[in-house]
Write a structure and sequence with these properties.
By secondary structure, the chain is of the alpha+beta class. It has four helices and six strands, in the order E-E-E-E-H-H-E-H-E-H. The strands form two sheets. The protein has a four-stranded antiparallel beta sheet with strand order 1-2-6-5. A two-stranded antiparallel ribbon has the order 3-4. The two termini are 18 Å apart.
């Protein structure tokens, strides 16, 4: 499995944190990798909107892309990220479970 860990980073100004919201998918070769979800794909897998939950229940600042937030222009620019201030210790756990563990269970028909 590639891409199983969740990247958590400090913002350039050091005032916030962000985590990538890529989901585990099976590649054509059969291995699993973290990839950008298509619109509605994660909600189809887990049955609820991670974005809505984070915005409403966890009070994150925004869901955006690396390109919009960091000004990246390379291949990672379209990667969705969640951005939050300090004190959001549950946020990375929620993102990890929803984007890594639940899709992995779904790939193995265990969800």
């Amino acid at each position: 499995m590639h891409g199983g860990r969740l990247g958590i980073y400090s913002s350039p100004d050091g005032d916030s944190y962000f985590a990538q919201m890529r989901i585990l998918k099976r590649s054509p070769s059969g291995s699993t990798t973290a990839q950008n979800p298509k619109e509605g794909e994660l909600e189809d897998i887990i049955g609820w909107s991670l974005e809505d939950f984070l915005l409403e229940s966890e009070n994150i600042d925004q869901i955006t892309t690396r390109g919009e937030y960091l000004g990246e222009t390379g291949s990672g620019r379209s990667t969705p990220i969640a951005v939050w201030k300090e004190g959001g210790s549950r946020i990375p756990i929620i993102i990890y479970v929803a984007t890594r563990l639940l899709p992995l269970l779904a790939l193995d028909d265990m969800l």
